[in-house]
Write a structure and sequence with these properties.
Layout lengths: L1 E10 L2 E11 L4 E5 L6 H9 L6 E6 L2 E2 L5 H6 L2 E4 L11 H6 L14 H6 L1 H4 L11 H14 L4 E5 L7 H17 L3 E6 L2 H7 L2 E6 L2 E7 L5 H8 L2
Parallel strand pairs: 3-8, 3-9, 6-7, 7-8
Antiparallel strand pairs: 1-2, 1-4, 4-5, 9-10
């Protein structure tokens, strides 16, 4: 389980997170919702170690990882698919996937067959450069690259952003399948309640660096969640 306790984060004098707490359990999707600029990505940066926090603690699998470097967190099974995908445009699809080998022991450095079961379009594009793929295909590649790392915590930052509806459905099916396997915790950042409602067991809503709603999906008032997300 991921256990974030009273985490604060600053960018200079600006406060991005104010004593934020949440948990994400293995075998579940925890969805973090909120408008633009409320601190969702800042929280992911704190969890993955991309930005040092100002206070609080972050624990994964019972161990305190608050001060660990990002690569050490990755070695412990934390994989991040950032907003905007951040694939390597000049590397081939195969080479992009193989960048996920960095955190694996030499004996485990292979692309699992189930990656191509989940994203069959990538198998036919292994020699194409990442920059030549469509936005939706790049998003699939970014998720596949994270799965090559064999994560136990998968952190997804707005995987539906700028993606055509057909691929959004494909990505939703992949997330649902990964959840049912029960091998990892999934922390999903989204702006769209309908997508989150279909996938998440727990929903957390942020506003201005604070968590304003949190609970099991069936416990929360849908109208209140939607109100918090409206501009």
């Amino acid at each position: 389980m991921l256990d974030v306790r009273d985490v604060s984060l600053h960018y200079g004098a600006a406060i991005a997170l104010r004593r934020v707490s949440l948990t994400a359990a293995t075998g579940e999707v925890t969805c973090l919702l909120g408008r633009n600029g409320v601190g969702k990505t800042s929280l992911l940066r704190a969890i993955t170690g991309a930005h040092r926090i100002s206070g609080g603690t972050i624990a994964w699998d019972g161990a305190d990882i608050t001060r660990l470097a990002p690569y050490d967190r990755a070695r412990r099974g934390i994989a991040w698919v950032p907003q905007g995908r951040d694939i390597f445009p000049l590397l081939t699809v195969r080479e992009n996937l193989e960048t996920g080998f960095a955190v694996l022991p030499r004996g485990r450095r292979r692309v699992p067959d189930d990656v191509f079961d989940l994203f069959p379009v990538l198998k036919s594009m292994l020699r194409r450069r990442g920059g030549d793929l469509s936005g939706g295909q790049q998003q699939q590649l970014a998720i596949a690259r994270a799965l090559v790392m064999k994560p136990r915590l998968l952190v997804l930052d707005e995987p539906t952003e700028g993606i055509q509806p057909s691929i959004i459905k494909d990505i939703g099916r992949v997330i649902a399948l990964l959840r049912t396997r029960g091998e990892m915790a999934i922390l999903l950042v989204e702006q769209y309640f309908d997508f989150a409602q279909e996938l998440a067991q727990r929903i957390v809503v942020m506003d201005r660096g604070d968590i304003v709603l949190a609970g099991r999906r069936e416990e929360l008032d849908e109208h209140e969640v939607r109100r918090r997300l409206s501009v």
